[in-house]
What we know:
The protein has 297 residues and is of the alpha+beta class. Helix content is 19%, strand content 32%.
Amino acid sequence: MTWWCTGIRWKEAGQDGVPSIGWHEPGRAERAGLLGYGNRLAFAARGERHCLGVWRAGRRTACPTGRPVPGRTGSAQCPECARLDRSFSVAADTNVADPRTYRVYLAWFGPGLLKVGITAEERGPTRLLEQGAVTWTWLGRGPLMATRRTEELLRAALGVPDRIAYARKRAVRAHLPPRAERAGEVAELHARAAALPGWPESLERLGCEVVDHAVPFGLDRLPRPARVVTEMVPGGTVTGTLVGAAGPDLHFADGLVVDTRLLAGWELVAPGEADGAEVPTAAVAPPPPEVGQDGLF
């Protein structure tokens, strides 16, 4: 039985979130192993990094070729599966007939780093956790194309981007201003957006209710990033004490940062198992079947 890592997964817990690591075995249900801050983690990559296929509507379709993928890419998909994924993507505007209700949000990642985006209402704040948004608020809700037009309105009128390079988010995360200051920046932008003319009539406006992710991300414990893993290789090992997680990143006490998008597609084992050595106790493993959907990482 081989379990492939699928990267970090954020579970909503009220307005907070709980990070876990996702696991996939062909032909079986997806599983997740909870992450605990203050725990020591150790894992190594074994074999090759493989394409994880396409995940849609809570179900994974396996890659027909099972081909390996490069270690440095942020997506554990081969070109064919990536094209199939994008052919049904709201983000790529290839699924404009999606009938679900969407929400527009404003997200803050650091001083001057604000963006506008949309997410399916049924997902709640999960998208904000996945992106590593430190502070955020809803702006409105409605049909997909109405939220898209609102996105365009803010970009054109206020110069608010819909994307921020992840390296910029990571660089400022360990030295952020106080919570009140970042909330104020979000509230100010919300007020400017609300005052704009030209909002779509089908979009329901939502008041400013700022949410802060300092607690679920463990921001008060994060050291300044000293090293960032840029690629996993066969036998490559990571060890350290986990002190926080934000977006796809795992933050360790010694300043190491691991982007879990680079772990996706790998079989992760305890250090020593990757080269055949005996290891008394696995420091990282997918949850056993009897644990159900929640195990310990």
